[in-house]
Design brief:
The protein is mostly helical and about 50 residues long. The protein contains 1 helix and no strands. The protein has a domain at about 1-30.
């Protein structure tokens, strides 16, 4: 019976770790896409459309 409780606890721990990892990865991708979209306040290339 103890082995089943340990297996259940490990399964729950791995599910929580997986959800946390997916959340971290989504935040990293979201931050990366926001940084790419926002070029900062540097020198901008002139627009070709006048």
């Amino acid at each position: 019976m103890l082995i089943y409780m340990l297996a259940t606890a490990m399964t729950i721990a791995m599910l929580i770790a997986t959800v946390f990892g997916l959340h971290q990865e989504a935040e990293r991708v979201r931050a990366k896409s926001n940084a790419k979209r926002f070029g900062g306040f540097g020198i901008r290339k002139p627009s070709r459309h006048f």
